[in-house]
From TrEMBL, chains A, B, C, D, E, F:
Gene3D superfamilies associated with the record: Jelly Rolls (2.60.120.10)
Biological role stated in the UniProt entry: Catalyzes the conversion of homogentisate to maleylacetoacetate.
Protein name, UniProt field: Homogentisate 1,2-dioxygenase
Binding site for Fe cation: H194, E200, H230
Self-association and partners: Homohexamer arranged as a dimer of trimers.
Highest taxon above the source species: Eukaryota
Homogentisate 1,2-dioxygenase C-terminal domain span: 139-293
Amino acid sequence: MENRCFYNSDGDFLIVPQKGNLLIYTEFGKMLVQPNEICVIQRGMRFSIDVFEETRGYILEVYGVHFELPDLGPIGANGLANPRDFLIPIAWYEDRQVPGGYTVINKYQGKLFAAKQDVSPFNVVAWHGNYTPYKYNLKNFMVINSVAFDHADPSIFTVLTAKSVRPGVAIADFVIFPPRWGVADKTFRPPYYHRNCMSEFMGLIRGHYEAKQGGFLPGGGSLHSTMTPHGPDADCFEKASKVKLAPERIADGTMAFMFESSLSLAVTKWGLKASRCLDENYHKCWEPLKSHFTPNSRNPAEPN
Amino acid sequence: MENRCFYNSDGDFLIVPQKGNLLIYTEFGKMLVQPNEICVIQRGMRFSIDVFEETRGYILEVYGVHFELPDLGPIGANGLANPRDFLIPIAWYEDRQVPGGYTVINKYQGKLFAAKQDVSPFNVVAWHGNYTPYKYNLKNFMVINSVAFDHADPSIFTVLTAKSVRPGVAIADFVIFPPRWGVADKTFRPPYYHRNCMSEFMGLIRGHYEAKQGGFLPGGGSLHSTMTPHGPDADCFEKASKVKLAPERIADGTMAFMFESSLSLAVTKWGLKASRCLDENYHKCWEPLKSHFTPNSRNPAEPN
Amino acid sequence: MENRCFYNSDGDFLIVPQKGNLLIYTEFGKMLVQPNEICVIQRGMRFSIDVFEETRGYILEVYGVHFELPDLGPIGANGLANPRDFLIPIAWYEDRQVPGGYTVINKYQGKLFAAKQDVSPFNVVAWHGNYTPYKYNLKNFMVINSVAFDHADPSIFTVLTAKSVRPGVAIADFVIFPPRWGVADKTFRPPYYHRNCMSEFMGLIRGHYEAKQGGFLPGGGSLHSTMTPHGPDADCFEKASKVKLAPERIADGTMAFMFESSLSLAVTKWGLKASRCLDENYHKCWEPLKSHFTPNSRNPAEPN
Amino acid sequence: MENRCFYNSDGDFLIVPQKGNLLIYTEFGKMLVQPNEICVIQRGMRFSIDVFEETRGYILEVYGVHFELPDLGPIGANGLANPRDFLIPIAWYEDRQVPGGYTVINKYQGKLFAAKQDVSPFNVVAWHGNYTPYKYNLKNFMVINSVAFDHADPSIFTVLTAKSVRPGVAIADFVIFPPRWGVADKTFRPPYYHRNCMSEFMGLIRGHYEAKQGGFLPGGGSLHSTMTPHGPDADCFEKASKVKLAPERIADGTMAFMFESSLSLAVTKWGLKASRCLDENYHKCWEPLKSHFTPNSRNPAEPN
Amino acid sequence: MENRCFYNSDGDFLIVPQKGNLLIYTEFGKMLVQPNEICVIQRGMRFSIDVFEETRGYILEVYGVHFELPDLGPIGANGLANPRDFLIPIAWYEDRQVPGGYTVINKYQGKLFAAKQDVSPFNVVAWHGNYTPYKYNLKNFMVINSVAFDHADPSIFTVLTAKSVRPGVAIADFVIFPPRWGVADKTFRPPYYHRNCMSEFMGLIRGHYEAKQGGFLPGGGSLHSTMTPHGPDADCFEKASKVKLAPERIADGTMAFMFESSLSLAVTKWGLKASRCLDENYHKCWEPLKSHFTPNSRNPAEPN
Amino acid sequence: MENRCFYNSDGDFLIVPQKGNLLIYTEFGKMLVQPNEICVIQRGMRFSIDVFEETRGYILEVYGVHFELPDLGPIGANGLANPRDFLIPIAWYEDRQVPGGYTVINKYQGKLFAAKQDVSPFNVVAWHGNYTPYKYNLKNFMVINSVAFDHADPSIFTVLTAKSVRPGVAIADFVIFPPRWGVADKTFRPPYYHRNCMSEFMGLIRGHYEAKQGGFLPGGGSLHSTMTPHGPDADCFEKASKVKLAPERIADGTMAFMFESSLSLAVTKWGLKASRCLDENYHKCWEPLKSHFTPNSRNPAEPN
């Protein structure tokens, strides 16, 4: 393990590895976090990450609030992400002298500071409490959705939420689109066309996202800012409008996710210009769309 | 229409017709309520019901609180029973003199009182406001449930709730078990065995309830009081434990429901003795059960 | 002062003297309470009352809750009953030995108990805190009502409220109908015809209540139980429907009040039978009423 | 109708036309909004406005929150602005091709963006829901105020409020000073002198504002920032202090309003310099004031 | 283990053994509960208790609510009873056939019912969740109190609380008076004389209660109903008023406790008559008291 | 008194004099505030301060919120800073003409504005209400802490709090470390080593702060920003780890305090550079620390 560690005085990190395993050392112990798992490391915790190959992923940082499970409402006592599936580290420590050589890097008010010390900070022999880092395997998500007709809002896929103090408004939600059965009858099954009061940043861990089969690749990202309409591409619309509906598997082998926020997201200059990966033609995926009536629409008043 | 009407000073009625149509006259107008529909008539509203054949059903009365839609939580802005599907009467009136002959019957503190008047009380020419009777067709319920594995709590089938002031505790919930797709893999799909902190009164409007195929007939009822364990009968257990799981329709042609309350329910003497319909052997449906491990159980940590 | 005092272990008393002054001794000091004033004596406080002539009034007892000022909502920081107009006693004591002769009477669970002691209980030399008896002069009530058109709900006359834990529902409200200006144009100005989700017990301290000029006398009472319709008598209706509307004084020289409760009130046998004061013909005040359209109704969409 | 429309991704608009009618096209239908009416168009809604003459007015924009009716508190179930008087559009659409020529302008993070499309966005054939633009005619405001003595806070004139998450603190209130009766005895009837924890921006739709008869003209505005004292001008003070009090009409033919905010308002350079309409002598309206006791003050303890 | 078990459908039990150890079998596993420990067994859980000698104690039953730790307020994140010191059973089971011979006794609506079954109900091989019985050793209570002057309310000794829905009002509190340091200067250190809005039932597990050295024995109980004044006996008063104050140990070797409830407690006939243990002279402990000024009173404004 | 006064439109001041008395004139009257007292002057209040010698202290300004007493939780009805010990001014005024010469200085949006007027603003003859400045003598703080073992969080020393809208999170707390008894057994008694989610600014009014005996002088300050660990210096650690524990006085003659905020504090350039008082070696107070086990640690499971 390197002689460097990090802690964030500003906020909490939700880390979504997309490629490569992360071996995370923390004061609480070690966690191996693999793609299709996520982990959260909160304010003030010192940590260090070992990687083993080309490695990449997504990070969401929230300020002044911690992630928590959504209140389940009528879903009841269990469902979606269950508390028992969140794993925390077991105490691990090293009694290692690094005279003058251990560097602790701190992010405070958006700037980085460094200090040197003589010992490894991972010297916590035992601990108790519930302010700990944790990880979660997305395959444990107990998926709930329509089993008759119509389309549930994507909030039903919420894994974790960082609540604002205004009820119903999140600083950030972490939402996934996991493998599941699609069975809604008399329904256009893909995500509907909509405007959102929240910003939607989508990423893809693996597979093919159902509403954008082309162009949106694992490791990529899309950003739909507040109140600008969007939805499935024209191909998806055509197919989903005409297909004969029967139970089918959706998203097998795929894991797309969304960072959704009531705040606006700024894009870095690098993201817009230097990355050379910007999809200049993204908006064209909707151009072939024509207004017309969708046969797969609901009219539940008809005889069953 | 008869020269008699009724109003309840004590509480609100939720009426579940099981056989025969109800033509309900209220001060707000008329409603035709048929089996598979429900209606609510609140405190103080004068009403009169015409029936046309042998007619029966269920009534749930709540005190000091009105029915409302459950908060949807992560389900989002739409789902379960949608507000737009609740129908209210259009103003209708009659200008009818009934000298000394119109009887208004009032239920107050559990007793009935009668008064005579000269005119029909259904003389409201127009009205506005939102304290009105309403009806709802259960086929409009947008059913949500597990689409991957595991079993959602029956609270996910809540149509209406009469909340107590203790968050999460209902005076009464009206819950249905509507036609839907069952797709959960690695799961024992019928209702699980449980004890409940609430009283469960079940009724059946039509069809066959999935967890008790025999004995529980349309128009019947069952009561499982708080904390006494119950669940599917032995037959249901055997079949559901061994069946190869695939998407299947559940409860087509059936509508069972539950009045669920955090309070205890008293049974009338007539219900226990005089009705001659008591099922003395009900508990025997569980006797053939033997403890054993259910193959259709979840182990989501196995490879998908 | 007598060698007897009283305390109530069950609840708080709101006392409304109607005739005769009350000189109330409490452990906190003395209060002279006269008609058109009210006072509140809470659980556990020992008190004794001297009267000087024929004396009568009304008492409202509430359990498990104290009276408080209503939240003013858009009325703002001041209005209705202002906190500064509630008066509390100044410490007063007597150092009086009454060997074996001072009787303390206690109401506990609706029963009376007595104990003897050697000293006067009014021996508190000084005190501080805010759990004190208080009095309020009803003439200080800052009356608010419609100054354009339409009719405000009588809740706008609330002096004190004893809240239940269900928001918007009171165990008991103390409401008055004080002298004020009536200026609403295009409006039927007396109390409107209504059914109430609460029980209404009305009393009259002095003068003539605007909606029932005859029969309802100072010291009398009327009870309209939940959900039974009522309103002004036929005379009042006739006059108020036809009068040309101009600013006028209402209730000068009059003080009617209401104990309003979300619970049902029981009437004692004495009240119903033995009092010989029951008004057997009360309901006849409404018999001359005929349905017809009231000219003094609002149509604000017409040009002003 | 022009080939341009607009939507605001940042917040909601409350529009107060002062001169000229507005014909507003929205995706929900059309609204004609005239002076003395207001309308609200929320985030994300595309709209376009036709005007017919010299037209002006006021706009208030709020972020992260919607306008709602104030909780009425003791005012009860009805009063102030009643829900039934808010009008929403009926669905209207045009099936109009504008090849490459329809411009959609978006305000996002305070900047304007434009996009072209081939069709009119006003192509919504039908809709349901409650996230809709609306209008309200200020003459429907049911005015409530003192009908005995003293002065209610101006919060009692609140039409709409955009609440912060701190109870009792509004991001913005829309308050009006409508035609009404003034009847308070023993009271200085104009607005009292005060400092405010909120910013007060006042405007005048028509007539003469009671506390500033001169200088404050329809279409004008005044801004009193937090905690700086203000009140009626010297003339108003003199008259209102000496006048013999009787019921009188206030503000007939006048409609002044206030945008009140717990935040501080910035004034544009144009507003301060370039407009040539700044009233440099505004503060002089108070200079003639001398401290003295007001005869029309309250002493309700005196005999009535 | 006997062939009988019990479950309570009505409420939760808090058990305070005073003499003799309890070996409690539950569906969740076994707990050995000894004097100076408490345990809670909730609604619906089947349990059976083995005792080994003369055994006695106290039981508090609450309905419709569970015990929880009090909100700590300014005490912060830790203190009083810490969550980590509550112990729950580890799964334990027996695979025991008892053909027709195992009796399950149920308390439902205050009555006892019995049913027979063929197997031991303690056949739960494993479980997860947080609805479990638990025990707590009172010596782990982190005692907080005045460390300068004055006397904290006994609420600061709250171990567990069963909250009503009215904030600040408990159905029942479990409060202890544990061994601790007494250091308050200028203070009368024993419990002060008071009236309580709650009922106080006190018990004694071992030792001598500081405010009643004689007569109140381990295994005994005292009940002070609402609003009747009480406090230390005359001896305690004399001593504590005159003693020179220095740090001293309080209650070493003693554990008194209080069941405190906002409801009134009824005493059984047996408790009042048949037990032959009633202390007829209890009230005499206060008779020697004379009013006088206590030297050990606070005047913090004097120089320290 | 000078012909200048000040008011703050932005927020409230909490003033902590450290040296020299403050004679504060306000519109509400005069307050003499001496070291070991604090005072609060809220938004909008005009005030002027006379000093008599070299004078210094600390000021905390909060925006959009007022200071209040913390909710006491299980501490009960009294304790910590008691309401009765907060003192407010008695009305005082001067009728003083200062033609063209009285300057009112206003802080608005962080900038200063000045206006001239002819009279003294301290001309308020009488007032009523509860929006007033106040002062509090810190010696009246009723200190509460551990009286058995373990260490209470410093929140238990909170005098005043300015709450954010997120429960449990303060914009700012004012916390003191007053003279008191230290009696916790089996405990390391000084402040423990910790990281804080809040910023800690400490000051010293007089004496020697227990955890930093050297270097931290009266009138000085220390700032520990969020999530950077800190605690007692090495000397303090050594002594407190080895000392035989007995009741002892802590902080006699000392008054340290903390401004604690969930926000980050910026330090002025003057504070960092120009003051020539920066302690460049502060971090060295921890360098001698070695990891080792503390004998004075808790193991409450051992026999008492």
